[in-house]
């Protein structure tokens, strides 16, 4: 055991100039963003059909150069009211997904895990004239799905339901179910949100470093 007293140990700990870079990396703040996911696809489809009829009536009105007649105007008003009611229903089915950034090292780890499970294979094409062999990586949908599942699991911080309740823990099975069950447009929005966080942060950090170096 050290002969140092408690006071001496306390003073040693308080000395400036020492820190743990691993602690800093673990505690650093990552950017977050939200994606709205609306699950009432039936109402969305009906609203889109009604909107087409509204557009037709409004276009006919504009093309003719005259105002709609009473019957047409009443029909238009009824359609607009119906559409607005459906929009309210759609809004009530809105879930808010909060996404968070992750370290680039994690993405590399995910890719390595995917490559372990689905080893990379290549197609080889030989030029009959030169004998040169060109290798191109084969597409592997299973590996792509697994990689995206890993990304979603790491990036989705929480989901807030319309009533305000939250889910902030997700298993890999949960992520698979989400990706199989969510509307196609929502899947695209979440994927874009994940890439937006990654790219926007990288560009911002690069810009900060660039400005700092220019002024130093």
What can you tell me about this protein's structure?
The chain has a 4-stranded antiparallel beta sheet. It is built from 8 helices and 6 strands. The chain has helices spanning 6-14, 21-27, 41-64, 70-91, 104-117, 141-155, 172-181, 184-215; strands at residues 32-38, 94-100, 122-126, 133-137, 156-160, 166-167. With 216 residues, the protein is α+β, with helices and mostly antiparallel strands. The longest helix has 32 residues, at 184-215. 62% of the residues lie in helices and 14% in strands. The model has no long low-confidence stretch (mean pLDDT 84). A hairpin with a 5-residue loop joins strand 5 (156-160) and strand 6 (166-167). The radius of gyration is 28 Å and the shape is extended.
Blueprint (SSEs and pairs):
Layout (H helix, E strand, L loop, with lengths): L5 H9 L6 H7 L4 E7 L2 H24 L5 H22 L2 E7 L3 H14 L4 E5 L6 E5 L3 H15 E5 L5 E2 L4 H10 L2 H32 L1
Antiparallel strand pairs: 1-2, 2-5, 3-4, 5-6
Helix pairs in contact: 3-4, 5-6, 6-7
Defining key terms:
four-stranded antiparallel β-sheet, single chain, 8 helices, alpha+beta, 216 residues
């Amino acid at each position: 055991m050290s002969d140092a007293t408690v006071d001496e140990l306390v003073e040693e700990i308080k000395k400036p100039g020492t820190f743990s870079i691993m602690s800093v990396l673990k505690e650093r703040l990552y950017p977050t963003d939200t994606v709205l996911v609306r699950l009432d696809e039936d109402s969305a489809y009906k609203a889109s059909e009604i909107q087409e009829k509204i557009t037709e009536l409004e276009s006919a009105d504009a093309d003719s150069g005259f105002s709609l007649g009473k019957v047409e105007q009443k029909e238009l008003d009824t359609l607009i009211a119906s559409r607005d009611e459906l929009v309210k229903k759609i809004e009530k089915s809105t879930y808010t997904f909060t996404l968070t950034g992750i370290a680039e090292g994690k993405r590399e780890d995910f890719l390595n895990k995917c490559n372990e499970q689905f080893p990379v294979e290549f197609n080889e094409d030989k030029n009959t004239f030169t004998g040169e062999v060109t290798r191109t990586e084969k597409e592997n949908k299973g590996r792509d799905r697994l990689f995206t599942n890993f990304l979603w699991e790491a990036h989705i911080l929480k989901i807030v339901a319309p009533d305000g309740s939250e889910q902030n823990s997700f298993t890999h099975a949960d992520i698979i179910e989400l990706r199989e069950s969510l509307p196609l447009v929502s899947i695209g929005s979440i994927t874009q949100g994940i890439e937006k966080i990654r790219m926007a942060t990288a560009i911002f950090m690069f810009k900060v470093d660039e400005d700092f170096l220019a002024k130093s």
